[in-house]
């Protein structure tokens, strides 16, 4: 194990306190040896054996959104064999203590980082992300979030010392004196239920938070995005075994499409922690039914932009156009509803009417995506056919201000690539409201005409309270409006970005500095990563005896 | 506000890291001006007006276990008026920030501390605790636990800075630069559901944890133990108002006996945090039904002692006799099942058979309580008639090894005072098992004959897993057995004390150093006080904008 892991851990712990920019994981493709395609091709059409106990069958059926089957077959587990084997691995991992666990986790992350291009290919061909984004978001940024979870886990577990002496004076009598040991103990097996669009980025925080706090982790990937997490499980098992621990501390639960094993696993008594990213319906089901477990969910939300005014109209439009286009809006953080006062807004380029703002935003998106090759590199491919269905439904909600365009991918002609659709609607139209007040995941946004900025803030509040939001973006030159947006986000517990006009986008957060979600509105009951994401994963047992 | 509150806060934060002995609250009665009886008498037979909005009636009906009605009438609240008033107080309290909130909480605690004798009388005459214990446990020790919660809340809220600068290099281009604000935001109204036996000790941690993290707190006391918490609410409201905050940040919800308003309040949408101490049935109901809230519960458990061997037989018996007698065993931490190998144990006084150990323990209890005045001062009064019913039931479970004796209280002849009952049972007897595997709250313990120390450890494991435990005590001279007891407590997540033979008792924990409960077995889903008791009470909202 590299001796520098301890230094990395210390810097991570320091950075979650300073919230400055930092990452040990380079994000530029040039930092990595190759583009991972050879390693990826070598994985396709193979049996991905992990040596797990209780493997009763082999399953697989992933198809790349770029138009070919992956052909990888994964172990299908008998939980009655696999879960007891995982449980048996717990005591030695618990005994290792917080520091050793953190360092092993850092070693897993370092090995994953060394294979970033291979992970990037796996992410690309399961999610549809373009390669540069799959490399960054699926590689270093996901690794950062995993490391951040380890740093929080280490900090929370070591706030109580391993040993303490306690001496209480008793006047003239001898003092009372005890020695005390404090041991962080894990809760049990942790289940990570992965999502289709960001398997590593959304999966790593829960995986590493649970593992670093001593819990064995069973990873149940989305049946259409298994490979990235299967690779992570393989690396984790190898690292654990080399470090002298039972590899069954991390295992994979692949399933047949439609088998629905998450529902079964989530109710197993051995499962005491669940991390889930996905639909609101199943997230709500987990919260209501997996009562034996601590359940951390990220569900659907309706992200809102309030446009009041700007002193950089072009910058605002360019920034927003990029946010709407990146990965075809298939991010849980992509803005959906852009609220614009009916009477228009003040800008550095003069007053702009509602219609002008909508038209200029449409033009900014069109301009950004005019070149097919560049567009494909930004948009990636649609993750599945259900996205097209949602787009067709959204078109009927109002006036199409920017039609979606099919883009031919230069290298992958079978990929379904679409530019964003912008639908102009009026907040007062109840039919339109039905559409824009529900999450429409994919390259769809609504330019919502509202009576005023005050009405926009009121609608923002209602949207967050009723539907949840992972991101809120405001554009204003008025400190009063900035204050009102801030108050709304404090009251409704949503993360706010103001006046982004440059190279920082509302849909991106930086580990160690930004919180992803708040855990305080219906979009998610957890934030990545804060103390509340960590502390319920372990308990502290004290052993005291006379000194 | 005393300038030293900040120093006290700093020492508290430091002590929860060192786990050393410390308290700013003197525990000796001589530290306080009088015995509080004049203040207490002045409260009796009065209307306890708190100036709360929505007071629609006056209710009361407390009777002292020492034999007289208190005659205090408390405000009965209309939640449709009171809860919105409390909610309206939230934004200004949120804006105050973690440090100011902590210092106001410390001021509340300091004012409560100054009135410790009055609280002691109120605790004594609602719980039945003897005055010296009511003073210590209901006064300084409860205040310590409240302060500990404030210290944890302050530490958790300030681990993220108020502001941060974030600058990310972009090669030859200008760096990306953001300024970020981080604001801890409360979840909503917190409901504290008090218990009959330790209204302040069990009530203060949740009250102060929620208040210090920005949440308004509604205190719903047990209908037979209102006065101690009503006094705390009054002090809190006065302190808040003097500090320029809305007194409705803390309010009382008294009820008619049998009204059951906890059930109604717990399901109100405004209520987002619940702290509860009481029966397993209602705790389980809260966890299952109050889904809009974070629910912290302390419920019933079966505390176990394993006697393997000792090198201080007399010390062990004396220590255990005290533990069984203190407040007539009406503590959630009192040992219930004393597991003793059928073949006897090794001691410094030679080998002792099971029967000898039981007889010697009975004699130790009898000796300790031989003098009625001393006995009354240790036992206090039974909190209610249901305790007598349970004692009668327990007698039928086995052979009575020590009969309970009625003690005449020298000053309060109407008080029901009883010495502990010890029932000898065999672990192999299924009828006895039904009795000893359920919590029998009160002065009842079972001396359980088991096959061996190994069998005792196995029964300990099963008891904690199935019924929960707040405390486990082991006596052994063998490091192997100590290791097995430790492993059992780590596996089942219970707090372990070993070989207590002096002035530290298993039923007592010290704030800032000992954890009360673990939160990881069926006796409680929360520990007092750890990070997990604090972090779910607030979220962090980030506001970021270009630098």
UniProtKB/TrEMBL annotation, chains A, B:
Q: Aldehyde dehydrogenase domain spans which residues?
A: 81-463
Q: Mind listing the GO molecular function terms for this protein?
A: L-glutamate gamma-semialdehyde dehydrogenase activity
Which keywords has UniProt assigned to this entry?
Answer: NAD, Oxidoreductase
Gene Ontology CC terms: cytoplasmic side of plasma membrane
Q: Do you know which Gene3D superfamilies this protein is assigned to?
A: Aldehyde Dehydrogenase, Chain A, domain 1 (3.40.605.10), Aldehyde Dehydrogenase, Chain A, domain 2 (3.40.309.10)
Please give a single GO biological process term from the UniProt record.
L-proline catabolic process to L-glutamate
Q: What is this protein called?
A: Phenylacetic acid degradation protein PaaN
To which species is this protein native?
A: Streptomyces marincola
């Amino acid at each position: 194990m590299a001796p520098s892991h301890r230094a990395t851990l210390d810097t991570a712990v320091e950075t979650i306190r300073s919230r400055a920019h930092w990452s040990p994981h380079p994000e530029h493709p040039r930092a990595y040896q190759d583009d991972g395609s050879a390693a990826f091709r070598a994985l396709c059409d193979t049996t991905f054996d992990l040596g797990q106990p209780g493997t009763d069958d082999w399953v697989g059926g992933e198809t790349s959104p770029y138009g070919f089957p992956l052909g990888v077959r994964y172990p299908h587990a008998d939980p009655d064999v696999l879960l007891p084997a995982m449980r048996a691995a717990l005591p030695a991992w618990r005994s290792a203590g917080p520091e050793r666990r953190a360092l092993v986790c850092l070693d897993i992350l370092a090995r994953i980082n060394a294979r970033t291009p291979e992970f990037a290919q796996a992410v690309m061909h399961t999610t549809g992300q373009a390669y540069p984004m799959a490399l960054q978001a699926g590689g270093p940024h996901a690794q950062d979030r995993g490391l951040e979870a380890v740093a929080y886990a280490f900090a929370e577990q070591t706030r109580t010392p391993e040993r303490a002496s306690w001496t209480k004076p008793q006047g003239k009598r001898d003092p009372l004196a005890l020695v005390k040991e404090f041991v962080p103990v894990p809760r049990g097996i942790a289940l990570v239920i992965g999502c289709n669009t960001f398997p590593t980025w959304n999966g790593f925080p829960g995986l590493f938070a649970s593992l670093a706090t001593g819990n064995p982790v069973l990873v149940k990937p989305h049946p259409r995005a298994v490979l990235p997490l299967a690779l992570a499980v393989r690396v984790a098992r190898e690292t654990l075994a080399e470090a002298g621990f039972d590899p069954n501390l991390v295992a994979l639960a692949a399933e047949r499409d439609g088998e629905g094993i998450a529902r079964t696993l989530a109710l197993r008594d051995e499962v005491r922690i669940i991390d889930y990213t996905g639909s609101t319906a199943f997230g709500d089901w987990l919260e209501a039914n997996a009562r034996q477990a601590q359940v951390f969910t990220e569900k659907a939300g309706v992200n809102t932009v309030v446009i009041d005014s700007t002193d950089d109209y072009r910058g605002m439009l360019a920034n927003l156009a990029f946010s709407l286009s990146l990965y075809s809006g298939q991010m849980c953080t992509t803005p959906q509803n852009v609220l614009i006062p009916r009477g228009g807004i003040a800008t550095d380029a003069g007053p702009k009417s509602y219609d002008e703002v909508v038209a200029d935003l449409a033009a900014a998106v069109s301009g950004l995506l005019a070149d097919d090759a560049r567009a494909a590199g930004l948009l990636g491919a649609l993750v599945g056919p259900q996205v097209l269905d949602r787009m067709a439904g959204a078109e009927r909600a109002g006036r199409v201000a920017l039609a979606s365009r099919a883009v031919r991918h230069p290298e992958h002609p079978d990929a379904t690539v679409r530019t964003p659709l912008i639908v102009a609607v009026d907040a007062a139209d109840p039919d339109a409201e039905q559409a824009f007040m529900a999450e429409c995941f994919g390259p769809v946004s609504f330019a919502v005409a509202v009576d005023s900025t005050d009405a926009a803030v009121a609608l923002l509040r209602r949207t967050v309270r009723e539907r949840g939001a992972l991101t809120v973006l405001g554009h204003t030159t008025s400190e009063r409006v900035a204050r009102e947006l801030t108050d709304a986000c404090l009251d409704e517990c949503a993360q706010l970005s103001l006046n982004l006009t440059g190279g920082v986008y509302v849909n991106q957060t930086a580990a160690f500095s930004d919180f992803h979600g708040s855990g305080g509105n219906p979009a998610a009951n957890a934030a990545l990563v804060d103390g509340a994401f960590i502390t319920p994963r372990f308990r502290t047992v004290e052993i005291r005896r006379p000194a």
